[in-house]
Write a structure and sequence with these properties.
- By secondary structure, the chain is of the alpha+beta class.
- The protein has one domain (4-96): Gcn5-related N-acetyltransferase (GNAT) (Aminopeptidase, 3-Layer(aba) Sandwich).
- It has three helices and five strands; from the N terminus they run ββββαβαα.
- It has helices at residues 54-68, 78-87, 90-96, and strands spanning 4-7, 12-16, 25-34, 37-44, 72-75.
- A hairpin with a 2-residue loop joins strand 3 (25-34) and strand 4 (37-44).
- The termini are far apart.
Length: 104
Amino acid sequence: MKNVKHLEKDQKFVLSLSESDPSVCGELLYERVDKTHLDLYHTEVPREYRGQGLGGVLAQAALDYVKQNNLTVTLSCTFLEKYGRENLSREYLDRHVKPGAGCL
């Protein structure tokens, strides 16, 4: 599996899906609300790559970043809300996930 790149300046995580065309990628977009809080608000994978778990790869990379940097996060994206509900421990949710629009 290809690595997810964090483009902090662009406030997104990117997963390259084609070695021949770097513009073919999945993205998870976020907004830095303040120094210690991110709002993850959009995840997108090209239609032809959907159903392969790539959104989950992006989600996990972003959430790993949150945990490693001791940040909090709002999951505003409905996909991420569902991902969090199904994949994150209660301890993780209580420590890192803050209520927000469409959040857990």
